[in-house]
Each structure stands twice: as structure tokens, then as C-alpha cells.
Amino acid sequence: xxxxxxxxxxxxxxxxxxxxxLLERSYQSDPNVKVESPKFLPDKVTGNPREHDCVIxxxxxxxxxxxxxxxxxLSRPITVNQxxxxxxxxxxxxxxxxxxxxxKGFCKAALSKARHHGISCLALDKVEKFAWLPxxxxxxxxxxxxxxxxxxxxxxxxxIGLEKYNLLKDNGDPIGAELLNFKIEFELRKMLGNELSExxxxxxxxxxxxxxxxxxxxxxxETSGITEAYARVEYSAKTVRTPLELFSYSDSEDGKVIAEAxxxxxxxxxxxxxxxxxxxxxxxxxxxxxxxDK
Length: 294
Fold this sequence. Notes:
Blueprint: H1 14-25, E1 33-36, E2 39-42, E3 49-52, E4 54-60, E5 63-72, H2 80-92, E6 97-102, H3 108-117, E7 120-127, E8 137-154, E9 166-168, H4 177-192, E10 200-209, E11 214-216, E12 223-243, E13 245-251, E14 257-267, E15 272-280, E16 285-291
Helix pairs in contact: 2-3
């Protein structure tokens, strides 16, 4: 009997880290700034990698400035010991600027200790509504493929009717089902629109021209160009409403709101990841997307 595989569970606090990294990405329009979450940095004492929840790396001429953000999703306020522990970790990983984010705030002594070490303390609070956001949801079309049949018109007549074949990009890289489904869903969503009055089922054939991909005979490894491609799709579609979680991002010292955001997870052939609508106080409204594999 084979041992049963354990279901992978998300690291505690990872959801908070994703939200914070989305918020920080909304501020990073400079190509010299990179936001990574999580990120491992070597310990200057032991040489072992140390994990940081979120690291912002900024290149300024010949210098590199690294900001580490610690995200604490705990049931009680952050303590002095936790501030000191993160401060020591940042010293050992050569961090230049330090930020701590808490959903439950900071003890008074912890704020004093953080102020002494030059650590910024931020709060992330869940709220019910924002004046600038009329709807607390994203409305879209969910598409399911019941069947897909592709056919290709090769430039070389010898490839017509080939039962087994590989598809390649013009640079020789393989083309998988995910990319093909992406092309179909993109065209299908253009045809259906963003919101359906009722669920819909049907069939449609998409015609693609000026195709630059290649078809390969897996036995001989010979390739041929493709002039046209057809995709016959049987599908079902419906409107889905994805609720937004609303968060306020503020300074724990003076209570000043830095940003407000609506966050949700989306999953389709076109995109799979986390999105955020961010109102940067005094700045423009930002849309942020971060790909997530699972």
C-alpha cells in the first residue's frame, strides 16, 4: 500500500505577506527597484540562508539599498523581544532599512524600541468599505472548455494529415496545452464580453492567421511552418463575482493611512494570481497583479 501524500498547507502568515508585497509593488514603478516575497539572504555570521517575508532592493548608482519587511499575523501585538529579534536578523543579513507590519499592532514598549533602532512600524487592518470603491467585488466571466480540437495548415504539404506532431515556437521552444488554451480563452472572452446575463453553452471555431509557429514530425524531427490554425471549441461560461477583501495600510506611530486596497485571488487560463486595487493617498489609483503558481 502506497503512503498517502500529505496535502501541502500554506505557511502561517503567508496570506499577509502576499497582501503586503502587493501593496509595496504598487509603489515600485522604478525599473531599478525590485520587490521579492519571500527572499533568502545569507547570514554574514553562519553563511546560512535566512528567510525574509518581503525584500525591496533598490539600485542607486553603485550602491544597493535593501529594505526588509517582517509581516506578523499574530493574535496579539508585537513585543519588544520580537522587535529586537528581527533587528538582529536584519543586521546579520546586511539589511539597510527595516519595516515591521502587524495586524494586531505593537506594544508601547515595542514601538519605543523600534523608534530607537529606526524601524518603521505599520499596521494592516481589515475594513468594511471605502468611499472610492463603489463595489466590493470584481465581476468577470468564468470559462470552461468542454472540448478543443486544433487543426493546422502547414507550409510543407508532406505534413498535411500528420496524426502525431509537436508544436514549436519559431525559436524552437515547445508549445504546451497551457499556451494554446490561453489563446482560445483570450478570443472567447473577447467574443462573450465581461458579464453574461445568464450561463451560456455553445461551440465556435476560431481562425488564426499569420501564424509563426512550427509543426514538427516527432519521428524525423523535421519541421514545417504553419500558415493558418483552426480551433473548434465547445464551451460553457457564466458570470462570477469575486469578493474583494478590503485593507487599510497605516503608520502605527501616528495612525496616518498610507494606502487602502481591495485584494482578491483570480484563477483562469489567462491569469492565476493575486490582484489589488490600491488607492495611494494623494496619488493615483493603482492596479497590481502578482502571478501565483498555485
